[in-house]
Known about the structure:
Layout: E1 3-5, E2 21-22, E3 28-29, E4 33-36, H1 46-53, H2 59-67, E5 72-73, E6 76-77, E7 89-92, H3 109-120, E8 122-125, E9 129-134, H4 150-153, E10 166-167, E11 176-182, H5 185-196, E12 201-209, E13 216-228, E14 231-237, E15 245-257, E16 261-268, H6 275-282, E17 311-319, E18 325-329, H7 334-343
Helix pairs in contact: 1-2
Amino acid sequence: MGGFTDKTPPTPDPSPPLRSAPRGEGRERSTVQNVAVTADEAGMRVDRFLETRCPRLSFSHIQRVIRKGEVRVNGKRTQPNNRLESGQSVRIPPLRLDQQKKPRAPGNEADEKTRAFLKSITLYEDADVLVLDKPMGLAVQGGSGTARHLDGMLEVLRDANGQRPRLVHRLDKDTAGCLLVAKTRFAAAALAKTFRSRAARKIYWALVAGAPKPRQGRISTFLAKEERAEESHMRIARHGEAGASHAVTYYAVVETAGPALAWVSLKPVTGRTHQLRAHMAHIGHPIVGDPKYFARENWELPGGMQNKLHLVARRIVVPHPRGGTIDVTAPLPPHMRQSWNLIGLDVTRYDPIVAAPEE
């Protein structure tokens, strides 16, 4: 478990919610507004900026008005994923407030179960942030055929003003461990900056096939996405190739179990999709149980070990939006704990990746 220290008194939230004025019979519409992007909001996506300024409006409706060109940035049409800069002027069109999301009514049995579940996986919480121990197999966000996901569950934590916690980074569906969530728009803007500047330190643990040599190293490649049988896959790409992004990972072998298995600690410098999984496969030591990247011929899963992805977001260390540091550690998920016990690995062993560079 981790915690937060040296917290300073909260500062006022600089970005007021959208104002409204009544119009028509029983329906309300907001007025046209031109609002300035604050320093705390710099770097936010346009759709997320609208979500914070219009907290009760459904996200799908926000996306729709942006695509229709009703939202302008410095007088020009924009896209939902465009990033804003401090001082830019955003035109927010009249919005029908009867389309706003209302706080969820208390007493709903399904919502109470969801709240209880979220509480059960909470590793750390304060007024601004929440760190969850995401279970393996639970998607962070929705997609095709994904009805149950953490982003949807956060709806039950919407407050009286319609604000709901926001994701500030992602984990793969089959990766367990530390997931940081912002509870306020102030925290969301600050943490988004932290992740973009790579000031967040993330440490992952994995069980891999074989024992990497040297025992500590740096993996630097370009990665590009390709579609395979209705699913995305990251492949090693060439520098300058269209769609290729640079990816850097530091690794360290913590302990080995003979020549067949190694416990490795991983520190990603960049945050590309499937980066750790693709990188470990690239150096010939794929992560045990990885359905996408494990391609070792004639390799057999040791007896008693579950064929599930052995990767956990073990620890996250980030500056707190209001001062001090958030430092939280997640336990091993059940299938990894079983494997550690099976092959006699000691979770309290010193982790050499802690001293790895941040660049």
